[in-house]
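For reference, the entry.
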Amino acid sequence: MSAAGSFRRERESGVLELLLVSPLGEGEIISGRFARVVEPISPGFCLLLGLWAYFTNLFPDQHDGGAICFIS
């Protein structure tokens, strides 16, 4: 949804035409868009993984079969 809105805004403002004639490759444009969409959610995701690793090590006897931890 965010990417679709971004394309619409770029088309209206004229940035889309500039991207199309720029020396950037398709992969660079797509990876830049992906990074822009993922950027707002990455701190929360990292915090979730960190808390999961912390509590997995805090209670090592509580095995639920799905806990994978890379911190020893």
Observations:
- The two ends are 39 Å apart (CA to CA).
- The chain has a mean pLDDT of 77.
